[in-house]
Amino acid sequence: VPYLVQNGGNDWGTTFTLDKSGIVIHFDQLRSVDFSSDRTQMTVGGGALICDVVPAAAARNDLVLTRTCNCVGALGAILGGGPNRMDQYGLAVDDFPSINLVKADGQAATVTALSGLELWWALRGAEPSFGVVTSAVPKA
To answer: Which segments constitute the FAD-binding PCMH-type domain (predicted)?
Structure first.
């Protein structure tokens, strides 16, 4: 079944098309930024926008590398392979060493560089072909 995951958006998003057999998966219910009880780990939900992530991190005196448009889905921008706000330091996805997703076969998985190397590299820029990312954990 063809699908399109949606959260946030900007002008280029209006060019996506989906015929009547497809579904739109709207991630607004996954719009979260959560911290572990010891505040050493942050989890960015699949529906979180950049305007959710930056203030949540700043409130805890932390920094998260993101894109610059507040209306864009944080993980979509990161997984799209784009440069981070400090381009000279690499891709934004480099700062997210743990990614939770539902794979194309319907199985939930947590993917890291140490668990499933092929899927790990596939998610870095080609994510929509391999499943739906539900959350990710940035470097501490």
So the answer is: 1-140
